[in-house]
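Think of the structure tokens as a kind of shorthand, similar to the way a musician reads notation: each symbol stands for something richer, in this case the local conformation of the backbone. In the example below we present two proteins back to back. Begin with the first one, reading the sequence and then the tokens, and try to describe in your own words what changes along the chain.
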Amino acid sequence: METGKSGSGHEPEAATGGRKEKSPPASDAPGSHPDSTTGSPNPDPSEDRARPEGTTPEPGADQDDRERLVELLGAYQETLDEVEDLPAVVWLPWARKGLGSHVKVPYLRWFLRYFVTHHINRNLNALNRRYHAAAAIADDPESNGKARKTVELFLRSLPSPPYRVLMVTAVLSALVIALPLQGFGNVFYLLDLVAALLRFDAGYIGEALEGGQQVGPAVRSVVVLLVGLTVVAAVLTSPFGLKRILFNLHPRTDETPESTAAREHVYRVEGIYALEDRVFEEAGIRRPREGLWDLMFQTLLLVLVLVFGLCLALLTLVILKGWNIDINLDAGAPGQVHFYLPQVSWVYYALFTALIFAAFVLLLRRLVIAWKKRVWHAGGRRPPPL
């Protein structure tokens, strides 16, 4: 009999109940070590927890990721060092060519270091939280250990911006700026009104306004306070814009702050921003959105231009119709003040009004384009064509 062709003649199958057990590979056996000649073992899935879904790391990808992270931290440190070497006022040309190249725009260095430090703190803390979350989900405390340690060490080197001191200084500066305009509106009058609004009681609001008799002074006080806040906002927007210029110009190979055009950086999101996008994309998250403070301030100025244009349009209409306007103004002193408009044809007022509205339309178009590019880029989408 030839038992080699019969399944019942195999003793291993009879011992296992007719099922042949496959022995585990040598690399998976307990206590065994992978052979170096058969290739490296499969990486732990926890190493890729911080990667975007649907991507597969290539050989050496982890090393490349850490090199980009170190490159980003080096760019941060170069910017911090450059801030210390800048003069108190940095003058930049408005445009590269034409008449704008002869117009210099001042940028203040005040509070610039606080803006740069805040940006770095916010972004690195978001990246560090992502690394910790990846390690927790992977149940591996050593996941992204080198990257986390690198980020934490750099965060320890950064000073903490005095946010409370800056906020109090900004409010007090606005009040001090508003003091010379106290004859028009007293900003301290708003304290009673603010206290009444915080109580959410209509009775207290009526008492603060004295039954509607103090509505006019309250409105004038708000206008004076807005003037003070606008001046403070202009001072704070200047270093914010300078921070964006320094970030866009990294690395300093083709452009320097002295040779760049200030108007271009309203649209540009390059340099350190592009490097941040790559690092955060490798970590599986988006870069935290940057505040659009400069665009907000430009929007405020554009609203003021619109209000000025509407006032001129109303004045043109008054002159055209020959209306008389009586303004009762309490100057706090006896006597009467007569104000007369110059005897000019309404055509000149209309022409000046048209120029104001034309400037408003051009500035509005430029501002809308800047908003679109900055918002689309912050959302991880490709900016629309200009």
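Once you have a description of the first chain, move to the second and do the same.
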Amino acid sequence: MQTLKQRIREAEEIWLLPLLNHCNNLFSGVFLPSHDHLHHYRVWCNARELMLMMENAGCSVSPELPGKLILAAFFHDTGLINTRNEKHGMESRKLCQEFFRKANHPVPVGYHEILDAIEHHDDKSYHENSMTGEPGPQVLRLLSASDDLDAFGYTGIYRYAEIYLLRKVRPEDLPDRILENLNNRFQNLKNIFAPLNQFIDRQEIRYWITCEFYMGLSESFAAASERPDWKGELIRVFQDGLLRQDNLLRRERLLPDLEHEREIRQFFMLLDEENSINTHT
């Protein structure tokens, strides 16, 4: 019988390069660094880690789960190439169906489970239970949790700002919109992985990095005339990057002249360190 690590390796040998290349091609004409092929790769890395943690905790992991999750991970946000809407999961589902319709790949085991997980990955009402559950919902829970993990930390600060600004949310409205979503994501993670205390503790640190930034941004906007703050200027840097289509998640970014240069360069240094760790997961 194959071990979980062997099943993960087998899934990657079959799918990783084809899916990474396909995802990269889908986003090649779309400027969306927050949700591009590298985001999908990070989500797969998160899913891989979560499956191994579940097994170590004594939870059942079905033999087909790695193959299902790698497909769901690499398609879940692809619908954003067609719509920035929060209900982009349906578009992602269609792109997955199109991939199997046009490419010379057999329909995988659990195909409809994969499609349902892709479509509903952002709907936290589906994920009220812990790590146990039927195989279908398990795909959905783990995809959702793996995606949530990429919304925390310094990467999360940028990713949230980018997608909400592209959805025409005003900068001053960002904190309320983002904090509600962020809190839902962390609560979802705790609901699913409550037995894994050390894991939750690690993710809570990353959650608070994002949370404290946007709480501080709210205070910054409230006192902007009296006490200008670097957080508001950082949002303007993000807006400038979107206008110039400069990928600020890359080290080769071009920053404008800065009033709060020390704080903003410190932010990007921490972002680069975090991305370096994620890249070598």
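Compare your description with these statements about the second chain. The mean pLDDT is 91.
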